[in-house]
């Protein structure tokens, strides 16, 4: 992997690092909807390219790091990102609302543990615009990470180690309680996993993926009925590293990847910068104990009453959602468990 000092490298973990919020002008649910909606649209692009392959993705992660990236850009580059995301990070109250959403997700009142983060990496000797780093930290309670990309192997080790250190979360399920078609609440009820698949086996999963949205997922949650069920769900463990360049370009964010069109003058005036890589690496494992996420034997889970049997023996979508805010943390497709 060779990168010139002029290239900025964007790397995604699972979500973002924002700190304590100040005055909030937008409720967390509003910001969560915007972030989730954008992230789901990116997932649709990823799923289309993946076709019949298993995929796990973090809508929240890509939305949060692109929100950070807005602050480093200017001109047409920033406008493209803002148009694709549907909001401007410099709108009054938006950055504090994102910080407050982060606080809602990671607060001690959540009974399910969530550990999330993301980062932007740039060349170590790049001279940043005066005052940029304090301003960036004030908004996001995070810093732009500086790495020497001329030492490619060391840079790769540093980034991979950062991802490994900062992306781990574990959720457990209560025994014997499930919701129809299909919500599986985790132990603390802060998080839920939704399983969705076309009822008729001959209908491809893409028929559902193509109409997916944050609003539709919220509709699932709002229309659940609690019923006893016997769920037969395959164990699955997925690890995906997604190159986000093509999906982001398909949504109109093209300039940031082009060396002489990208505008990162809000970050540095030293030399032309562009995004060299936009990557997301996510791992998720689902078994009888629950879910382990860090960024095939059937499991049979019984309800207490004689239940209707639901056998998930066809391709399906899964969603891990933070219920208090509606944030979509993880989203994936299982084509071959």
UniProtKB/TrEMBL annotation:
SUPFAM superfamilies: Serpins (SSF56574). Residues 40-337 form the Serpin domain. Residues 1-21 form the signal peptide. One of its GO terms (biological process) is negative regulation of plasminogen activation. InterPro entries: Serpin_CS, Serpin_dom, Serpin_fam, Serpin_sf, Serpin_sf_1, Serpin_sf_2. GO terms for cellular component: extracellular space. One of its GO terms (molecular function) is serine-type endopeptidase inhibitor activity. Keywords: Signal. Pfam families: Serpin. Belongs to the serpin family. Forms a heterodimer with TMPRSS7. Interacts with VTN. Binds LRP1B; binding is followed by internalization and degradation. Interacts with PPP1CB. In complex with PLAU/uPA, interacts with PLAUR/uPAR. Interacts with SORL1 and LRP1, either alone or in complex with PLAU; these interactions are abolished in the presence of LRPAP1/RAP. The ternary complex composed of PLAUR-PLAU-PAI1 also interacts with SORL1. Interacts with PLAT/tPA. Also interacts with SORL1, when complexed to PLAT/tPA. This is Plasminogen activator inhibitor 1.
């Amino acid at each position: 992997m060779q990168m010139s000092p002029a290239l900025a490298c964007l790397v995604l973990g699972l979500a973002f690092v924002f700190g304590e919020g100040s005055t909030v002008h937008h409720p967390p649910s509003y910001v969560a909807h915007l972030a989730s909606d954008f992230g789901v649209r990116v997932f649709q692009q990823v799923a289309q390219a993946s076709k019949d392959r298993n995929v796990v993705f973090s809508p929240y992660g890509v939305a949060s790091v692109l929100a950070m990236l807005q602050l480093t850009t200017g001109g047409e580059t920033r406008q493209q990102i803002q148009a694709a995301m549907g909001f401007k990070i410099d709108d009054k109250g938006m950055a504090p609302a994102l910080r407050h959403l982060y606080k809602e997700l990671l607060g001690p009142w959540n009974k399910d543990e969530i550990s999330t983060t993301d980062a932007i990496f740039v060349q170590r000797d790049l001279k940043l615009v005066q005052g940029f780093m304090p301003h960036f930290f004030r908004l996001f309670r995070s810093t732009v990470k500086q790495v020497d990309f001329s030492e490619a192997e060391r840079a790769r080790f540093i980034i991979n180690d950062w991802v490994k250190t900062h992306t781990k979360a574990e959720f457990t399920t209560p025994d014997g309680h499930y919701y129809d078609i299909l919500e599986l609440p985790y132990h603390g009820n802060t998080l839920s996993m939704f399983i969705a698949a076309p009822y008729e086996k001959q209908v491809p999963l893409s028929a559902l993926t193509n109409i997916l949205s944050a609003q539709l997922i919220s509709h699932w949650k709002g229309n659940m009925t609690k019923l006893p069920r016997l769920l037969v769900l395959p164990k699955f463990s997925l690890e995906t590293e997604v190159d986000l360049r093509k999906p982001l370009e398909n949504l109109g964010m093209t300039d940031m990847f082009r060396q002489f069109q990208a505008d990162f003058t809000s970050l540095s005036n030293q030399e032309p910068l562009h995004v060299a890589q936009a990557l997301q690496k996510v791992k998720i494992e689902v078994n009888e104990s629950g879910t382990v996420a860090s960024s095939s034997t059937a499991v049979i889970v019984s309800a207490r009453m004689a239940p209707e049997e639901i056998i998930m023996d066809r391709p399906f979508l899964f969603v891990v959602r933070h219920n208090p805010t509606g944030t979509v943390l993880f989203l994936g497709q299982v084509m071959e468990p």
